[in-house]
TrEMBL record:
Family the entry assigns: Belongs to the glyceraldehyde-3-phosphate dehydrogenase family.
Native source organism of the sequence: Dactylosporangium sucinum
Residue ranges of the region described as Disordered: 1-27
Molecular function (Gene Ontology), one example: NAD binding
Annotated site location: Activates thiol group during catalysis: H207
Protein name (record): Glyceraldehyde-3-phosphate dehydrogenase
């Protein structure tokens, strides 16, 4: 269930190109920088360490380097890394030989991405920056920027497995990779639409709490003001409406809500779908079990709970026992690890973009 596959439509490693003369020699793999070393940034780093063809060259964050090393090495949700991480002057050292530079620069315009030969920057700071902030990375020498959230001003939104093959280096400079729920429900909806047709869908995602919430009641917008450990907190999920950006036929046909719950990780996306024709639970499960997405969309007949999916890199794990149908109405549920899976897809998108950039200048 925890296989690290990228599906038939994910980009595969090719021959690494050489950068232009002013840039340093290339090492094997796509060269990535992470701006912001919070939950998203560290999760992306963890995923990249397990991906031989992606190199995290640098991270930029205002926290002290020893603290960055400690928080990367030890995690309250996922436990210790299988590699030793130590802090050295100006950087992190993994297993004694893999060095990542650590910068402490508040101004994106001063970041040395050109000198470091950075292909892609993952912009993971909070509060979520918009396009103008992301463009500062381009001015500093990066060739592309990924926003790990939806942004209306991004050049495009990509969900790995659905449309990352349409990345165009000439047009797509600041891109979004959506959200963890959409990476899950997008694949499920693609399968259902291909097999039966999807007329409309609504999602209700039971989601682990996040750092956007407080431990105790605090000043915040709406229901997020209430303490995360004590409440089920419904919040609007505008990202579900953006499924149409990666599945154009479903534009305007999908909406959803999220309920934050007091667990640190592990989520369940429930989809209520009106199909184009009546189908039995067996037919629906057969389509999902044989989907084209390989390890991106897994299928399980086990009676799973949220802790079972911690550490899974799958965008979604269909829980076959929860599938229901009434005529053309269908209910499908899929689990996902909101941090590990989304970080894995971010690294997959870094890889796809990086190799596309190198092919474009070969």
């Amino acid at each position: 269930m925890n296989s690290r596959q990228s599906g038939p439509y994910a980009h595969r490693p090719g021959e690494a190109g050489r950068g232009p003369g002013a840039r340093p020699p290339r090492t094997a793999g796509v060269r990535v920088a992470i701006n912001g070393f919070g939950r998203i940034g560290r999760s992306v780093m963890r995923a990249a360490l397990a991906t031989p063809d992606v190199t995290i060259v640098a991270v930029n964050d205002l926290m002290p380097v020893p603290l960055a090393a400690w928080l990367l090495r030890r995690d309250s949700t996922f436990g210790a890394l299988p590699w030793n991480v130590t802090s050295v002057p100006g950087g992190l050292l993994v297993d004694g030989d893999r060095r990542t530079e650590v910068l402490n620069r508040p101004d994106r315009a001063t970041l040395p991405w050109r000198d470091l030969g950075i292909d892609v920057v993952v912009e993971a700071t909070r509060p979520r920056p918009g396009r103008r902030a992301a463009e500062a990375h381009l001015a500093s020498g990066a060739r592309a920027v990924i926003l790990p959230h939806f942004d209306a001003d991004a050049d495009a939104t990509f969900v790995v497995g659905l449309n990352e093959h349409s990345y165009d280096p000439a047009r797509h400079h600041v891109v979004s990779n959506g959200s963890c729920p959409v990476n899950c429900i997008g694949l499920v909806l693609a399968v259902l639409d291909c097999a039966f047709g999807v007329e409309a869908a609504s999602s209700l995602t039971t989601h682990a709490y996040t750092t956007s919430q407080s431990l105790l009641d605090a000043t915040a917008a709406g229901r997020l003001a209430r303490g995360a450990p004590f409440n089920l907190v419904p919040v609007e999920d505008p990202t579900a409406r953006h499924v149409g950006q990666v599945l154009p036929r479903l534009a305007g046909r999908v909406d959803g809500l999220v309920v934050r719950v007091p667990v640190p990780g592990g989520c369940l996306a429930g989809l209520a779908v009106r199909l184009g024709r009546a189908a039995s639970p067996g037919e629906v499960n057969a389509a999902l079990r044989s989907s084209r997405f390989g390890g991106l969309l897994e299928y399980s007949e086990e009676p799973l709970v949220s802790s079972d999916v911690l550490g899974s890199t799958a965008s979604g794990i269909v829980d076959a026992g929860l599938t229901r149908t009434v005529g053309p109405l269908c209910g499908v549920s899929a689990w996902f690890d909101n941090e590990t899976a989304f970080a894995a897809r971010t690294v997959d998108l870094c890889r796809a973009i990086g190799f596309s950039l190198r092919s474009s200048r070969a």
